[in-house]
Specification:
With 259 residues, this protein is α/β, with parallel strands linked by helices. The chain has nine helices and eight strands. Strand 6, helix 6 and strand 7 form a beta-alpha-beta unit. It starts with a strand and ends in a 6-residue tail after the last helix.
């Protein structure tokens, strides 16, 4: 069974002391591909370094909405240059976050839109963060139409059916993470049953959102297997089928990843 963790923050300090062991456990669990998204300009450089040093690990580069209030001069030009690296496979993690509101909402929207347009110029998909900002995220995607270019993914999806359908209609993929395994996530599991098969992805969002029964502990990419199991159970299919579906979908979206 081959697994693809499409969103894992290996550059986080919580992996500083045992990254090699974390990756070894991932391989033992069948995780053969991992995408590591940045959150600011400094981590853009860091995720590329990690991708260079480890087989099967790839980078996404971008400015997270929590970093949108402090974008260094020349950052977009540098990100555009870094996007040419052979192991950079997406622009992300970008989006809007109205829960923390770390930057004014118009600023977040401007930073996201600039990066969507950058992604379209360089021919890469986007990885979208959305927290309590759904209508503005969907409006921006409808206006900028990245789904008509290289596409993108709604990372750590945790929304209702109508939002899923609107995102899919805009050409986006839907990625499920640890919350799919939580006991009170029946509504999310119901949505997971009806996502079009060719739009399904899985992730861990490590070190965050560890799935049941590890909730509250540091998450790591090996546990994407538990997300796959929950998705398979929701859809009533074998887990190896979900693994293969999400493997194919991730390679289709992240076209620079080696098959």
């Amino acid at each position: 069974m081959r697994l693809f963790d499409t969103h894992c923050h290996l550059m986080d300090g919580r992996f500083a002391d045992d990254l090699d062991d974390v990756l070894a456990r991932a391989r033992e669990a069948g995780v053969e591909r991992i995408v590591v998204p940045a959150v600011d300009l400094a981590t853009c450089r860091e995720v590329i370094r990690i991708a260079e040093e480890h087989d099967g690990v790839y980078a996404a580069i971008g400015i997270h909405p929590e970093s949108a209030g402090d974008v260094p001069e020349g950052a977009y030009d540098e990100i555009e240059r870094m996007a040419q690296h052979p192991k950079v496979v997406a622009i992300g993690e970008i989006g809007l976050d109205y829960y923390w509101d770390s930057a004014p909402r118009p600023v977040q929207q401007e930073v996201m839109e600039k990066q969507v347009e950058l992604a379209k110029r360089v021919g890469l998909p986007i990885i979208v963060h959305n927290r309590e900002s759904t209508e503005d995220v969907l409006a921006l995607l409808a206006r900028t139409r990245p789904g008509d270019a290289a596409g993108g993914v709604m990372h750590c999806f945790n929304e209702r059916e109508e939002v899923m359908r609107r995102a899919v209609d805009l050409g986006m993929y839907i990625s499920f993470a640890g919350p799919l395994t939580y006991k009170k996530s029946d509504d999310l599991r119901a949505v997971a049953t009806i996502v079009p098969e060719d739009r399904l992805l899985i992730e861990t969002d490590s070190p965050y959102l560890s799935p049941h029964p590890f909730r509250g502990k540091r998450n790591e990419p090996a546990r994407v297997a538990l997300v796959a199991e929950a998705l398979a159970a929701s859809r009533g299919v074998p887990v190896d089928e979900i693994a293969e579906i999400t493997w194919r979908n991730a390679h289709r979206l992240f076209g620079k990843v080696k098959a």
